[in-house]
Amino acid sequence: MADTTTADLRSQLAAATRILAQHHLVGMFGHVSVLTNDPQTYLVCPGAGARKDRCRASDIIELDLDREFTPGLPLELYMHSEVHRLKPHIKSLIHVHSPALVALAAMAEVPTDLLMMHASFWPESMPVWEEPDLVRDRAAAVALIEILGDEAIALLRWHGAVIVGGTLQEALFRAILAEEHASQLVTALSHGRPLAPVPKTVDRDELYAKVLSARTHDMHFGYASTFVAVEPGARGDA
Ligand SMILES: [Zn+2]
């Protein structure tokens, strides 16, 4: 999306924020960012206290990678700035505190069976950030992004997850599917019945390429956008 203007990205990020809210992936907590065509600048949705389901393009915040946290910005903004600084091919990061991913993040051994093809971005070994704190400074964010490595998702113990994508549309679809897959894994642990996961001989990257093309990400974005009409703004103003 090299030719996407910042104005377009603002609109897309606002829609993505509303879609994530509709799926209860962001609400009081959680946020999403996208890198602009200027690799020193990214866009992020409003932080805690803002109504994500009402996010409009005018609510989107534009930040320089070196910008420090000040009240009014997402407290954990450094996870966005550092992923965009260290991995500029990752155009979008989504941070969630959603129930099934939080449940997995509390497990000593995070299950990595693949129970649905559409979650084939699921790592064969789940990266886990082990700090009992928020990602509240740049050093913590750098450590988190190093732990993430080349995977699409990392868990944060007792906290949530980060999900990344090469486009905003990819990160968005992955975040929704990650929570669904985490829910399936938690359910499987609860019922205890034998599982038939995708065989380990199946290459997950190849499966992902077949099942979740860029065209599918874009199709999902168009589809999901139709459900999220925008009304009063994220801060409640008309
Ligand atoms: Zn958080």
Describe the structure.
By secondary structure, this protein is an alpha+beta fold. 37% of the residues lie in helices and 13% in strands. Strand 5 (128-129), helix 4 and strand 6 (153-156) form a beta-alpha-beta unit. Helix 2 (78-86) packs across helix 4 (138-148). It starts with 5 loop residues before the first helix and ends in a 13-residue tail after the last helix. The mean pLDDT is 94. The chain binds zinc ion.
What is the chain-wise order of helices and strands?
A: HEEEHEHEHEEHHH
Structural class: alpha+beta
From the alpha carbons, calculate the radius of gyration and give it in angstroms.
17 Å
Number of helices: 7
Mean pLDDT: 94
The proportion of residues in beta strands is 5-15%
User: How many extended strands?
Assistant: 7
Largest sheet: 7 strands, mixed
Low-confidence stretches: none
Catalogue the ligands. zinc ion
Helix percent band: 25-40%
Query: Distance N terminus to C terminus?
Result: 32 Å
